[in-house]
Design brief:
CATH architecture: 3-Layer(aba) Sandwich
CATH topology: Rossmann fold
CATH superfamily: P-loop containing nucleotide triphosphate hydrolases
Protein name: Sulfotransferase
Number of strands: 4
Oligomer: single chain
Strand order of the largest sheet: 2-3-1-4
Pfam family, one: Sulfotransfer_4
Number of domains: 1
Shape: elongated
Structural class: alpha/beta
Radius of gyration: 21 Å
Keywords: Chloroplast, Plastid, Signal
Strand content: 5-15%
Helix content: 55-70%
Largest sheet: 4 strands, parallel
Number of helices: 5
Distance between the termini: 66 Å
């Protein structure tokens, strides 16, 4: 009787541990987004004109911490809604970026960048080769930073 109760409790604990990790990871991503991501996303400027179809015009291929936020502000000021690495804090957007980057499917990239005319920061630095093939008329900006001054 005691062995059965122990076995049942052990099985329940094992099942809980197996299910807890993915569930906790998913919930933690949403919690981080809700607590921090939405606030910082709201601080990002919104594009002046939402485009109906992704028509990427500018690919900023520099790594993060090389002035990408300044370039985002410049693009937004010039009327180019810009996709930044900060947008990846939202789990659904992050998952879509991973799908687009790993598959290289142009439809995934177009869905991700729907309404944006420029891309910068981590997504631009990682996916610039794929983006250059999908959007051959897009202008490329490579921003760099002297590593000795970091």
């Amino acid at each position: 009787m005691m062995a059965m109760a122990w076995l049942r409790a052990s099985g329940f604990l094992l099942l809980s541990l197996l299910l807890a990790r993915p569930l906790c990871n998913h919930l933690a991503r949403w919690l981080v987004y809700l607590l921090f991501g939405r606030r910082s996303e709201q601080q990002l400027p919104k594009g002046t004109s939402k485009q109906s179809k992704s028509n990427l015009q500018v690919i900023i291929a520099g790594f993060p911490r090389t002035g990408t936020l300044s370039l985002l502000l410049a693009m937004e000021t010039l009327g180019f809604p810009c996709f930044h690495g900060m947008h990846l804090k939202k789990p659904t957007t992050g998952n879509l970026f991973i799908k687009a980057f790993t598959s290289g499917d142009p439809k995934c990239w177009e869905e991700l960048l729907d309404g944006y005319a420029a891309i910068t920061d981590f997504p631009g630095a990682c996916g610039y080769k794929q983006l250059m093939e999908i959007f051959p008329n897009a202008k490329i900006i490579l921003n760099i930073r002297d590593p000795n001054k970091w």
